[in-house]
Amino acid sequence: MTPLLPPDRAEAVRAVVAIARQHAPEVDAEGRFPREAFRAARDSGLMGLLVPAEHGGWGGSPAHLVEIAGALGGACQSTAAAWVMHCQQVDALARFASPRLRAEVLPRVATGQLYLGSVTTERSGGGRLLTGHSALEAGDDGFRLRRDAPIVTGAGHADAFLVKVRSAPDAPPTDLSLVYVPRDRVRIDTTGGWNAMGVRGVDNLAMTMTASVPPTHLIGGRGRFGEIAVESFAPIAHLGWAATWLGAAHRCWVDLLVHLRRPTTSANPREPLTAERIARVRGRLEVVNAYLHTVLAEVLTRRREALSLADTPTQIHLNTLKVLAAEQCAEAARGMIRLAGLDLGYRRDSPVPLERLLRDLTAASLTYSDTRLLLANGALSALDPHVTLAGERQGADPTGTPKENT
Predict the structure, then answer these.
(1) Would 15 be classed as within a structural domain?
(2) Can you give the residue range of the structural domain that contains 64?
(3) Domain of 19: which CATH number?
(4) Residue 404: its pLDDT value, please?
């Protein structure tokens, strides 16, 4: 496992990964939530990876998230995706909640009592993260909200939710707040299920929720959602998802190579066409891995130096990471199936689960639309005349000369 973790925690991660891998076929076949893996994650403390040590958590960083998401993705993409979304919520609470709310919630996350769900989508929003329709209304003892959400990951199993809402009924659509809503304070009506082609175990349900919450459950105060999304939600999601998709493709590639090396295989690695196909798959994985760790290093550096992630080059790099990983991992899966052939690559009962890999990775470009991110990058690129590429020191050209002086 990862050398970034102490041995006992690395061993705990390995145990969760093994359980996720064991149950992945039935999770996919039955389209059910990965209960066994999440039970193990709760019991091991893995749900508290990003909970600071002072609240009883592992005190982990995005680097730990990337390593573990990759391992979980190689075992079960549904488990990995739902866990990454939970970690996204934890990061937002740890970085933006009041001391009182952190003290109330984070120790329970660390001990596995709270699995956090995310409610950011709206039927009328067209998938736009930074606009909203449903609004907070003032109540006698805090706020009331009614929220109609078309997709909530882990909806049937989450113990609490972070809910995006407009800050007030008369607030503009971009004036958004984030609210912590425990399950025991909310009425939930499920309005739609999840019978999908891939990532079938994430329990993405449509639901309507009605709740009353105290003012202390407003995360960071009114109108902070845009900042939370830029500093926490988007980077954790893009890093975690990219690691998950790469981990899944990498695991299948390792398993497929075992079969391709056998003398009885119909795909001879010494034949030029086969060798080229092998090289292309390997190249796609190399590119995603390199870009993932380059952007991860940028995020870690900016957080360590208390710099915002809202600067234009960093936003472009994070958006590019998500799009690049989604496209290249899916293409790698298609390349593996071409190499494996009809019997090994196309069968649902193949010893290398390439059919499941391709179905799962088909969702990658749809999970927060690649098109939306490319449109954003097109606009952002006009605001970065120095063209600061990922891995490049900001403010300098490749020769090290300050760009403002060139």
Answers:
(1) yes
(2) 7-115
(3) 1.10.540.10
(4) 46
| DSSP code, position 309 | S
The Cα–Cα gap between 404 and 406 comes to 6
State the DSSP string of 179-223: EEEEGGGEEEEEEE----SSSTTS--EEEEEEEEE-GGGBTTSTT
End-to-end Cα separation, the chain, in angstroms: 46
| 3-state DSSP assignment of residue 333 | helix
Which one of 200, 217, 234 terminates a domain?
217
Q: How far apart are CA 267 and CA 274, in angstroms?
A: 6
Rounded to whole angstroms, the Cα distance separating 21 from 26 reads 10
The verdict on 331 and 361 lying in the same domain is yes
- For 156-190, what is each residue's pLDDT tens digit? 999 999 999 999 999 999 999 999 999 998 999 99
Alpha helices in 54-114 (DSSP H): 62-75, 77-96, 99-110
Tell me whether residue 39 is in a domain: yes
Residues of the chain with pLDDT under 50: 1-2, 404-406
